[in-house]
Amino acid sequence: MIQYQTQAAASSQHLNALKDSRFPPMTRDELPRLFCSVSLLTNFEDVCDYLDWEVGVHGIRIEFINEKGSKRTATYLPEVAKEQGWDHIQTIDSLLRKGGYKAPITNEFRKTIKLTRYRSEKMTLSYAEYLAHRQHHHFQNGIGHPLPPYNHYS
Questions:
Q1: Which CATH number applies to 39-123?
Q2: I need a surface site. Which of 64, 113, 118, 124 has the fewest CB within 10 A?
């Protein structure tokens, strides 16, 4: 199951990076300025109260029934609410909109949300660090000559 989720996430991220029409394609000149971050999500806990989580500590995933009767979900990593300067209510309301909820948001509706909180550990690697790591492992594998920089354009 974990391997499947990892492969699915990697495939999804690959498609997002290469096929997302919201952003122009990366260029070779941008590579030295790129960073790749991965968040490992852990400690998932279902909670009874939609306010039972801490801004900047927990990521949250909400599940709700929209105005058309369909089940919807949305999630934010722990850093999102803190970076945006949001409190609990602003974060929940933003997630509801992210999940496609179009009706007015009331406190009564917020109480119907199923909320799961989690933690994450974020790891970031620069392109230069990636190249150094790739070069180091290439030599360790006995190849004995430097690898050219990765070029997905050729």
A1: 3.30.1490
A2: 124
DSSP codes of every residue in 65-107: E-TTS-EEEEEE-HHHHHHHT--HHHHHHHHHHHTT--SPP-H
Residue numbers of the chain with a pLDDT score lower than 50: 1-5, 152-154
DSSP-assigned states of every residue in 2-21:
HHHHHHHHHHHHHHHHHH-T
pLDDT in tens, 14-23: 555 567 788 8
Task: Show the CA angle centred on residue 112, arms to residues 111 and 115, nearest 5°.
Answer: 85
Residue 4's pLDDT is: 43
Residue type, 45: E
Q: Nearest to residue 151, comparing CAs of 19, 5, 21, 28?
A: 28
